[in-house]
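[scheduler] slot 2 assigned
[scheduler] job type: sequence-to-structure, two independent chains
[scheduler] chain ordering preserved from manifest
[runner] begin chain α
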Amino acid sequence: MKLSLKTIKAATTQHDLRWQAVLARDATYDGRFYYSVSTTGIYCRPSCGARRPKPEHVDFHASPQDAEQAGFKPCKRCKPNQPPLAEQQAVMVANACNMIEQADHAFSLEQLAQQAGISSFHFHRIFKAITGLTPKAYTSAHLHKRVRMGLKQSDSVTAAIFDAGYQASSRFYEYSTSVLGMTPSRFRAGGLKMQIRFAVAECSLGAILVASTTKGVCAILLGDDPESLLHELEDTFPHAELLGGDAGFEEMVAQVVGLIEAPGLGLSLPLDIQGTAFQQRVWQLLRDIPPGTTATYTEIAAKLGSPRAVRAVASACAANKLAVAIPCHRVVRRDGHLAGYRWGIARKRALLDKESGLECEDQ
């Protein structure tokens, strides 16, 4: 029996992998190809939500230009001749971030949404999904950063606070200690008159430096060279009074070393955790990961309610200065492979082996 051209055309389309992407409305194929419908005279993205056409009416095109040269018009629903929605949203958020960073005052959510041309609710949801922070938290983090920079350059604490964009100094002083780890005056002086106790020891991972403010442990650094670890601490607080630990402090260091050698013991020491709002949210989730288990960057981002913030989660892990106490070594890639670690992949693998008991099995 001779098949009709219509039947042959339908079968050809149905056996094309691109047709499966159209049926699934798979957005990952957007930009890789486009499909046209002969009965409507339009072309669409694979993810278009319009009613699916019959396969015998479909043709595929490599680009919008190819489809238009064939006589088809762009769909008004999915707008295939414009950048993909994800790209448009990324540009919109990038413009909003630039707007926040360049301004000398804070914008309201309504002002940012109006500039983007969408509702406040929609803008808030997209901004958080892409950056991992709400617009308010991003603005606060940027103001804090500007204050830190201003305090190092200005002769006046008040001037630095207002120059950063705060409308009242009282609003900054309310959170200044948690933001800076000390009073603004001391921060401006590079930690002048502030005492930081520290000690360097050896553990199975090499050299370790433990430092503490009056609030709690502010740094646990790992490395091969004790001197370089001390220089890192000095660079952070160039004018602070660094004091060698006394007998009591040595006991604290021993507890930290003990945590490395026997992770199951846990650490009950107070911590002086300094970071942005987003970083602190990530670090808290890391502290909830039990020894001997791991989580992926994707899983952490999902728990934050920001599934697109995988890179931001990775950046927060890299910014951690409290090795082991905030166990960023327990975060791995989605395929289970070890990703970057501030103190080296070898140390990350060694810590995971200790926690899983593999090291004991090898001995």
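[runner] end chain α
[runner] begin chain β
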Amino acid sequence: MRMGMALAFGVGGMDAVVVALAGFLLRGGVVLLALPSVVLPSVIGIAGVTGIDAVGIDGRPTPWLFEVVAIFIAAVILWLALASLVGSLVDIWLIEATVDAAGRPVRRGRPLPELGLLLDMVAVRGICLLPVAAALAWASARVYTVAYNELTTPSNLATPLPVRVVENAMDAVVVVSLAWLVTETIAALAVRRLILADGGVLRSILGALTQIVRRPFSTVSTAVASTTASVLVMAITLAATATAFDWCRVAARNQQPIAISLGLGPLSTTRDFRPVVFVLAALVLSAAWVAAAGLSGIASACRSAAWTGEVVAYMPGRQVASTEAELGLSGRSAERSGD
């Protein structure tokens, strides 16, 4: 029932899809959608980039590698902070659209939420990411060991290095994935309780944990259904874009002419249609990208609506504040942007 309402919300209007897609791309979805178009580097390619600066003769990482990793971590933290802040705006919009009386996103102008609410939402997600950071810290040592072993004594040269590392360090991948799924569930509930119940950061997180304990079946069902739907959508879109990208690559590298004779009477001629094949493959890739973006936006909107419905179903009606107060909107109802 709840997932059906979430699906109706996701496909009910273009506004929700566009807003949800923006949040999905900003929070890392653009990296997932771009993966099929990334050519995995070979060992020789990695060695050509890093040279002898990354690992010493004794197999230990050099100070240069630590500096590069530190810069990368700092960039990721900055990106996560900005993504959380702007993504909070997306969450507020989607939650307001979900709890709208008509059950669909409204097109009227909305005042901006208060800065304090946005910072509280960032704090909630930041606290929930701490277990993921701990899991990543543990997994990094495991991944480094596997990567070094594959670089020095490759187990299978026919398989790209990143794929071999993931296969041999699957335990680290599973731990990080489970930690992310659990904390993402807590964060989704806590953020909505923060908005709808007008609670503080710690109170919202404790309320989310309490809700999971009191409604384990409902919470797990929502988590499994929404996550499975998102994974299926991503699998389909990645497979489609990867296939289209391979077509483009094959068309671009084809050295054999595709000769086609055009019968025009005395003006008959034979032309090489390789450029036409490449253009058609590029058009298919573009269509696959557009379809992937659209499906990702729908899945993200449905996922947001499902978690909002879960929180609203758990909270008594008296705990949910008025529309303007629950969303932390600044200004009075008459002072709306766009009016």
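[runner] end chain β
[qc] chain β: Residues 274-314 form the longest helix (41 residues).
[scheduler] slot 2 released
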